Each structure stands twice: as structure tokens, then as C-alpha cells.
Amino acid sequence: MIEQELSPPTEAPRHTLAKVGLTCRECEVALALLSGRGAKDMARQLTIQVRTVHKHLEHIFRKLGVHNQVAAVLALRCCLENGSSRLSWRWVFWRPPSKPLLLDP
Asked: Does any domain span residue 49?
């Protein structure tokens, strides 16, 4: 497997993610998550423990109001593309209610 280096995050994504309330290290982990890195790769590249990566991911999930990595990636992409805060990306996950299910015909 070819080892790829994490490119140093530019200030623009960091500034946008800081609006969501992420710390500098959480921004680095979030950008690594966006690039498709696994926890072990993130830990190796950021010179931190895997457990620390998981803690950072927990904090990122909580600050974004999501429960898994897929939702976090969608929210982070939306934040970076639109320069939006955590409250304005939630419409991505909202679905209009379908017809109510009638239990009694």
C-alpha cells in the first residue's frame, strides 16, 4: 500500500470548521476524516494515539449533532462547501413526512 501524507490543512477550511466550534486538533482530525483516513492512519499521521483520535471524533460528532462518520462527513462537506454553521446544514438530513400510515382502514 502506498503511504500518502496528510496535506497540511489550509486556513480556509480551518476557519470554516472553527465556526462550527471545532478546536484546531479537531479540525485536523475532521479534515483527515474527509480525506477518507481510518483512525489508525489518522493517529500515525497526527502522531497521537488511536484512542485520542476516537475521542476527537466523539467531540466532532457531538458538536455537529451527528451519530456516525457518514453523517459527520456529509455535515462537514456541507459546512466547507457552503461556509455554513452547524445549524444550517441540518436541512440535508431532513425528509418531508410521508403520508401517515393508517392502521385502521
From this structure: yes
CATH number for 37: 1.10.10.10
d(CA 15, CA 103): 50
Global pTM exceeds 0.85: no
Residue 26 in any domain: the answer is yes
Q: What is the span of the domain harbouring residue 39?
A: 11-83
Q: What is the pLDDT of residues 17-37, one digit of tens each?
A: 877 889 999 999 999 999 999
pLDDT at residue 84, rounded to an integer: 60
